[in-house]
Fold:
Amino acid sequence: MGQFSDHTSSSCLECSLFEDNIYMSAVTSVFLSAIFLLFSFVKKTFIKAAIEFLLLISLWIFWNYSVFVDRESSWSTYDFKSELHYTLSLSSLPAIILGCICILVLHYKEIKARWIVYKKHKL
Structure:
């Protein structure tokens, strides 16, 4: 949603996209840290990673939706369906790629341990 960085926000006329992203990131990082801490008690790596992946994807698409609504569609005549379509078409692929990378980084040790066990059983 960087293409909207030069557009004026409808909620704060003096705020930049960078400021909005910093505030959203700060609040969301606390929220996600608490949620991921709760998921640390789940023993099944696949279930934990799948839930975290879906949560990350949902959150990033919501962020992009809110940026689009705040900086573009509030100044125009988009309906809800058009807003969703536009947001999903622009942010689905980047969110999925970043979600995969984040999950791989978060669960690197668990994935590596499973890979080593898998390789030993294969030999």
User: Anything to note?
Assistant: The two ends are 48 Å apart (CA to CA).
